[in-house]
Specification:
Length: 459
């Protein structure tokens, strides 16, 4: 067993509740902002985060690594008449903070000016700070996490004699405290928690080749994790179902993206409507605001204030208030995703998306994933994609894939070593259905997505 501790202090720090540190972190941010103001800067913003946690990984029911983490840093950005300087420090003593602020200011004095630099506008700062139920501390030690991982492996290995080995399981418990403040007088912080368990299994095919697959669970509250037995059995079942995969003939057919792959498909859409891609003119969705991107029945809503949501937040990383909004309304693009910088570059309004997106929920079309398989008739279910064959400028999409061949609405056999290809613009308009049983484990909450047709390269 290997034990790694990437922290200062003792191992008990991994379970000590981090919310007790929040007042000191806010004070550190206030010290930095006061000193930046004393130096005569135009503006400044400061972010600080502290993380602590415990991770245990196992393999074949033996503990492999135990990692305690306890770290954090303060980062400061100073503006001087359009010039910008950055600095950071992990030492939160007043003297070290002042040195970091001065270093950032010195850098700003020598960098070129950019009129689009600066804080987000003061009137956009979050005022209504709600308790979003993000912090649920739970005392668990390395032995307890190891048991979760080993129990998941045990359940998986008992699933079938064709499941030959574990490729590892991991159980994690982490908490964090984050504080952000700027020269507008905004200064706020919050704590969060995240727990997860994953399991990867290896199965043997008839010819001796191996296949692997995995499953995982993640939650803000420890009690809301799936049981380790459930995770292990799902990992084993998915691995077992991949055994004796084959290629299919080259041609065109409907494609049903499994929920965890559908999130990636929508992820390409996120990149295309992000401000940095737009002002660099490196997006296939330039000048698409208000235009139809998806079928008219298709909707995406952003819900940043869901209680306990994995991507919930009152404000973005610039202090801008997050709001519930339509991303796609009746198939049309309702908004871009803009930070203060990209909004100024584009002559548009900041949308509060510095740092990411917040709980996107795709409206479904009424059918479950199983019902979409039957409705598809003959086609391909995609459960894995590989490679980087996505061109953000043109929207051209070509990726290696694996999954299952479907005929007459029934899964026939697993498929591997194929390529699926299309153009994202066409693919988005060709969405036929979205399954009602959503994957809730990421910031994009969606069921499986059925496309009418894609090009398949196989035999």
């Amino acid at each position: 067993m290997a034990t790694h501790q990437s922290s200062t202090g003792d191992q008990a720090g991994a379970s000590h509740q981090i919310d007790s540190q929040l007042p000191a972190l806010k004070q550190a941010v206030a010290v930095a902002l006061d000193y930046a103001n004393a130096l005569g800067t135009s503006a400044a913003e400061v972010a600080i985060s502290k993380q602590q946690g415990l991770s245990v990984s196992t393999r074949d029911k033996e503990v492999e690594t135990v990692e305690f983490t306890k770290d954090g840093a303060l980062g400061i950005t100073v503006f001087r008449d359009g010039a910008k300087g950055n600095s950071s420090t992990s030492d939160l003593s007043p003297e070290a903070i002042k040195q970091a602020v001065k270093a950032a200011d010195d850098i700003a004095k020598y960098t070129s000016k950019d009129s689009f630099n600066g804080l987000a506008d003061a009137e956009l700062m979050a005022q209504d700070i709600r308790d979003l139920d993000l912090y649920h501390p739970h005392e668990i030690d390395a032995q307890g996490l190891a048991k979760l991982a080993i129990d998941s492996e045990t359940a998986a290995l008992d699933f079938s004699d064709r499941i030959k080995a574990s490729d590892g399981a991991s159980a994690n418990a982490h908490t964090a405290a984050k504080v952000y403040g700027n020269s507008h007088g905004f200064l706020n912080g919050y704590c969060s928690s995240r727990y997860s368990l994953s399991c990867v299994m290896i199965g043997e095919e008839s010819d001796g080749n191996m296949q692997r697959d995995y499953d995982y669970t993640v939650a803000r509250e420890f009690s809301k994790l799936l049981s380790p037995e459930t995770v292990g059995i799902k990992a084993a079942e998915k691995t077992f179902n991949r055994l004796d995969a084959r290629k299919i003939a080259t041609g065109k057919m409907p494609v049903l993206f499994a929920p965890e792959i559908a999130t990636g498909l929508i992820g390409h859409f996120v990149g295309a409507i992000s401000g940095s891609s737009l002002y660099r003119k490196s997006s296939f969705l330039l000048d698409s605001l208000g235009k139809q991107i998806f079928p008219k029945w298709f909707n995406i809503q952003e819900q940043p204030h869901l209680l306990g949501g994995l991507a919930s937040a009152n404000y973005d990383s610039e202090g801008v208030a997050t709001i519930e909004r339509d991303i796609i309304k009746d198939g049309e693009l309702a908004t871009y995703l803009l930070t203060s910088y990209s909004a100024r570059k584009l002559g548009m309004t900041n949308t509060g998306h510095a740092g990411g997106i917040y709980n996107w929920t795709l409206a479904h079309s009424g059918q479950t994933f199983a019902e979409l398989i039957k409705a598809m008739g003959t086609g391909l279910i995609v459960t894995e994609v590989m490679g980087q064959g996505v061109n953000g400028v043109t929207g051209d999409y070509s990726r290696g894939a694996a999954g299952f061949y479907v005929e007459n609405g029934e899964i026939q056999y697993p498929v591997e070593e194929i390529t699926i290809a299309g153009n994202l613009k066409d693919m988005f308009m060709d969405v036929q259905a979205v399954a009602s049983d959503r994957d809730m484990r990421s910031s994009i909450r969606t069921g499986g997505i059925l496309l009418g047709e894609m090009q398949i390269a196989g035999n």
